[in-house]
Design brief:
heterodimer, A: 107 residues, mainly beta, seven-stranded mixed sheet, four-stranded antiparallel sheet, globular, B: 117 residues
Chain lengths: 107, 117
């Protein structure tokens, strides 16, 4: 199975900050990498797929980059509604696997 | 508007069975692969099973032989039959649409499965 490792596991930031979360795969996944946002008690929300393609309706302050084994999710200017947990996911091969999550908290 | 409405969760004793349902609307259900994911209490996300438009099926190893994913295109519905349930199967279960390139773009609201004696 492909292991996905996110860093950091938690992060404190302020409204307006630029934030970057990284995700590393245990083996190359090409660009078959997605990012999800999850708020407490809610279903995950797709933000980015194919490493850098913004899901329809997702604000442009979210961006993704990377290929192979190393990927990043960047939020250019944090908004109050962005405080949540973020997960990366590889889907190059089954089983589809997720990172452990990054909890983004208000400083 | 795309909607995935889940039902069928609940409390079951170890070894018991449950059937989860996911009713789809707002899109042509038969044209999309469908999936189940789960999230144990306080834990991260885990993929459980997928079924393509041609009914090719894949499962995570931990549920093989116990869970069965199926779809009824006439009823626009996805199912997960869960047998021989274990304490470690306790989780919130989510159905999700896949646009064919494993872009999981729409998710159900989740349904809670509790396995306890």
């Amino acid at each position: 199975d492909i292991q996905m490792t996110q860093s950091p596991s938690s992060l404190s930031a302020s409204v307006g900050d630029r934030v970057t979360i990284t995700c590393r795969a245990s083996q190359a996944v090409s660009n078959y990498l997605a990012w999800f946002q999850q708020k407490p008690g809610k279903a995950p929300k797709s933000l980015i797929y194919a490493a850098s393609t913004l899901q329809s309706g997702v604000p442009s302050r979210f961006s993704g980059s990377g290929s192979g084994k190393d990927f990043t999710l960047t939020i250019s200017s944090l908004q109050p509604e962005d405080f949540a947990t973020y997960y990366c996911q590889q889907y190059t091969t089954y089983p589809i696997t997720f990172g452990q999550g990054t909890r983004l908290e208000i400083k | 508007e795309v909607q995935l409405v889940q039902s069928g969760g609940g409390l079951v004793t170890p070894g018991g069975s449950l059937r989860l349902s996911c009713a789809a609307s707002g899109f042509t259900f038969s044209s999309y692969s469908m999936n189940w994911f789960r999230q144990a209490p306080g834990k991260g996300l885990e993929w459980v099973a997928s079924i393509t438009i041609s009914s090719y099926i894949v499962y995570v190893d931990s549920v093989k032989g116990r869970f069965t994913i199926s779809r009824d295109n006439a009823k626009n519905s996805l199912y997960l039959q869960m047998n021989s349930l274990r304490v470690e199967d306790m989780a919130v279960y989510y159905c999700a649409r896949d646009d064919g390139s494993r872009n999981f773009d729409w998710w159900g609201q989740g349904t809670v499965v509790t396995v306890s004696s």
